[in-house]
Design brief:
31% of the residues lie in helices and 24% in strands. The chain has 451 residues and is an alpha+beta fold. The protein is elongated and about 105 Å long.
Length: 451
């Protein structure tokens, strides 16, 4: 049968261009190219089943890129088009941001209101099998490809979760994921702005949300900028969001192997909330672009960062189109905060560490007493004014006799954060971190009133 040699010639040409750029090592590169050609030809002729030439070449390219780091990969033409759609805020799948860790797919974060989110997938979960087929041995791109599929089709995933002795099996129905990247509501005089990811519409949606809350509240005392479980997205949108709260200074810098290509992104004075205190919420699902925003506002002392340490993805991926053959996603630089702090594998450490917690009521014991139910007590001035007779008895004040329910905290691990409580019309008691952020801003407002 006729064989197609064009893909191989393209790859050889690519390698030869590298060889010509490094004359000293040219001999070694030619030897390795010969080795590649020998292996390629032997697989084509002797493998137990016939394999398409294009599949072998794509696998070779993907293997080369994925061996560099978890975020470099080859994108087939189909995957490249899907990635372009995703940055516009709509794509198909389960709704999870993932990376590769120790041969397994690690969930960076589930996206709000998606099938994975509703099924109970948590940040930090490891996916070990898809439809009972082990992940081990697959590249990240291959694993993601298996999880993709048409809307309304089902997929079974096996999850390993810290603290759980047995694997967790979930059957999830795929859907078209339409991400609303900014949500907002008011909490008294506090504006709550949540960014779920950084896509092409984020900065415009953020400005609209701010104007809406500012109009509804009137006298805004503070802003909660919630970046928890935000996996990142477009760099220019992270810069624009940071710029929306800064007057001046550097927002982020990127530094690669060639110092001439280093870039510095500066604020242009577009601060839309001058003199209004800000608390930024982060957790271990906050990655990449969300870490850029948190780091910039923290370093400029424009915001108090609260929560738990972020994910620590501080690398820059450049998508390089390969005409007619998709694209390659290559890690080309690292992110640095204005103070020169590298985000990579370190993350952003909050100014105030607040673990997520569950609020539980504690019943008052019968032994608790108050002055109001002491025997032979003095009457209060209100009781005297109302002409209440003093029986000097041991009766309990009706209010004090009620079962009081002071709040206490049961700490959860950061990856056990009640992810399903951080976005929606829920009582603050169900979201301890948000409640503490609102408390802090209210306290700052009270303090400011005393000055």
């Amino acid at each position: 049968m006729m064989r197609r040699f064009l893909p191989l010639s393209l790859v050889v040409a690519f390698f030869l261009s590298i060889a010509s750029a490094s004359f000293a090592a040219k001999g070694d590169i030619y030897d390795m190219l010969n080795l590649f050609g020998d292996v390629f030809q032997r697989v084509r002729t002797d493998y137990v089943e016939e394999v398409k030439d294009s599949d072998l070449i794509e696998a070779a390219i993907n293997g080369m890129l994925s061996s560099l780091d978890p975020h470099s990969s080859y994108l087939s033409d189909k995957n490249y088009k899907e990635m372009q759609i995703q940055t516009k805020g709509e794509f198909g799948g389960l709704g999870i941001e993932v990376t590769m860790d120790n041969g397994l797919v690690k969930v960076v974060t589930p996206i709000d209101d998606t099938p994975a989110f509703k099924a109970g997938v948590h940040a930090g979960d490891y996916i070990s099998a898809i439809n009972d087929e082990p992940i081990m041995g697959l590249t990240l791109s291959e694993a993601v490809e298996k999880m993709r599929g048409a809307a309304d089709t089902k997929i079974k995933i096996t999850i390993l979760r810290e603290g759980e002795k047995e694997p967790i099996e979930m059957t999830i129905t795929r859907a078209i994921i339409k991400v609303r990247s900014v949500r907002s509501r008011s909490k008294g005089n506090i504006a709550y702005l949540r960014i779920t990811q950084f896509d092409e519409k984020t900065i415009d949606l953020l400005k609209d949300a701010w104007e809406k809350e500012k109009k509804a509240i009137g006298d805004v005392k503070g802003i909660v900028l919630d970046l928890r479980n935000n996996p990142g997205g477009l760099l220019d949108q992270a810069v624009a969001v940071s710029d929306a709260f800064l007057d001046q200074g550097e927002i982020v810098s990127t530094r690669g192997r060639d110092t001439e290509n280093n870039k510095h992104y500066m604020a242009r004075g577009n601060n839309m909330a001058k003199d209004i205190p800000i608390v930024v919420l982060i957790n271990n699902g906050s990655a990449s672009a969300s870490e850029i925003v948190a780091g910039a506002l923290q370093d400029h002392k424009r915001a108090i960062v609260m929560g738990v340490k972020s994910f620590g993805k501080g690398s820059v991926q450049t998508v390089i189109p390969l005409p007619g053959h998709g694209a390659m996603k290559l890690t080309t630089a690292r992110y640095y905060t204005p103070s020169g702090h590298s985000i990579q594998a370190k993350g952003i450490t909050p100014d105030i560490i607040v673990e997520q917690a569950k609020i539980e009521p504690i019943k008052k014991t019968p032994l608790q007493r108050f002055e109001a139910n002491m025997p032979r007590r003095l009457l209060s001035e209100d009781e005297l004014k109302n002409g209440k007779a003093t029986d000097k008895g041991d009766k309990k004040d009706p209010e004090s006799a009620k079962d009081e329910k002071p709040e206490t905290r049961k700490h959860l691990k950061s990856d056990e954060v009640s992810d399903r409580t951080i976005d929606g019309d829920l009582n603050d008691k169900e979201d301890f971190q948000l409640a503490r952020a609102v408390d802090l801003l209210n306290s700052l407002a009270v303090y400011k009133a005393f000055k």
